[in-house]
Amino acid sequence: MMKYSKLLAWMLVMILAFGVVGCSDDDDDDTTGPTTTNYFEDAAEVGFTYFNDYSTANIPAATVYDNMLNDVDMFIIDWRRTEDYNAGHIEGAVDWAAPDLVDNMDQLPTDMLIVNVCYSGQTASQVTSAMHLMGYDNARNMLFGMCGWVAEGSWSNLTSNGYDLETTSNTMTETFDYPVDLDVDEADLDAALADAIDAYLTAGTKNKSAEAVYNMIADGEDVFVINYWPVADYEAGHIPGAFQLTPKSWDMDVLAQIPTDMPVVIYCYTGQTSSQVTMFLNTLGYDAYSLLFGMNSINDTHPSNHGYNPPETDYPVVTE
What we know:
Layout (H helix, E strand, L loop, with lengths): L1 H29 L5 E3 H13 L6 E2 L1 H9 L4 E5 L3 H6 L6 E2 L17 E5 L4 H12 L5 E4 L40 E3 L3 H15 L3 E2 L1 H9 L5 E4 L3 H5 L7 E2 L7 H4 L8 E4 L4 H12 L4 E4 L3 H4 L22
Helix pairs in contact: 5-10
């Protein structure tokens, strides 16, 4: 009897032991919180996907008009001042302000083109970039803004400054720390990106004129200028001291060559692509600016420059 009593006691101890171990495992599973992720790297990867393709960024005004004639569904957003919208806009366009983009996201369609329109394509390009970063692959910047719709406005009145260019190549060899990492819950990544975009647009898009950039260089101010062109165009002439960054070549090594302790100015041919890049870099924590109107405002005699061509006939506008 004693023998069986000892056996039963041993079995009870073993059962309790396994029970404790089992409860311990269950408790560990229950207390495991949401996984965190590096916001900077994940947000950067979203941008790499977009900018290393960049085939869905822009739409000519002529295509927008053809779409209207063929009853193609589009959601057109006019980002100009309300008084200018009221004075004449594309039929069907809604009147929005850039700081309201994130608040209005629930109104953005996913089953038709979103066409962003501003005065010259600068602001609309930044908004288009923001939309793509937030997953709206159907967003487009209407090239040259309302200047592409009617032959008047900022592009028609633009005068090149005729600034000096250099042909000496400057190589990005120094590396810098990335902006401060932000660990967020994996489920909150989209919200973190939207918050960064909202903060940037609320403060106002960042741009610099050619005059301001050349004055900074002349005064010896810290400024990191990026020429966002292919190598051949860069070598034909660029802002003195500018570094060349080949489009569609984004990765973490490229970001490591961009400083975080001084203003970064990006320029392209017209300011529209550099505007999209500027939005991207600001969401990552860089102090980035787009050079307004690109090479067209620097020196329009550059052999590789892409200029503005006004429409042969103005497209219709409405005031209602």
